[in-house]
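Incident log, structure service

09:12 report received: a user says their structure output differs between two submissions of the same chain.
09:20 pulled the input from the user's history:
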Amino acid sequence: MPPNLTTFLRFQAQRHLRSALRRPGDILNPLVFFLMVVTLFPLGLGPDPDVLAGLAPGIVWVVALLSSLIVSGRLFQTDYEDGTLEQLVLAPHPLALSALAEIISHWLLSGVVLAAASPIFAAMLNMPVQAVPVLVISLLLGTLCLSLVGAVGAALTVGLRRGGVLLSLLTIPLTVPILIFGTSAVREAVLGYDPSSWLALMGALAAIGLILAPLAAAAGLRISLEA
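09:34 re-ran on a clean worker, output below:
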């Protein structure tokens, strides 16, 4: 990889991280939403620990998916509004690499933070201790996949004033396999079985997404700019 491209990618990642840190609400809102929903489920389902433990994998993963949708819509919004996106299109480096840098930065400040906080939510839902490491790993892989899928939808809707509903319609069908694999991995761990096959499938999805999603996001950004 040429040194100038390495410097460009590092600059892009640092720029996106600094920009996100200036808006702490973008980081805290998904966590607050996650906490509120996880708190409400025991109130609605009752305090029975066995019921909560059985439903915990599905609850955590559905809330993780919804939390991802909350923040995905703003992935490229700032660059679009201040004109940076047009400059990136004209830059000598591939737009897909710029999109990848923003996706990874977004994942670090949303998915990784959510995975780090997930043991607290697992304890609130009475999830067995042996399932917590699998929950963290599945959320790390799954939120990366969700960020990649969300980036494609965000790129296609970045120029729309009310693109949130369209973003949901575009991305939710694509996130169903991620939801199934993540929930199944955690459920297997809760039951004491081996979840490695489900985690391997999630890893494969993440690897494929890292290759294809930036290319699709770059194409979507170009379409949005030309519209």
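09:41 both user submissions now match this output. Likely a transient worker issue. Closing.
09:42 reviewer note: The chain has one domain: 3-226. The longest helix spans residues 196-226.
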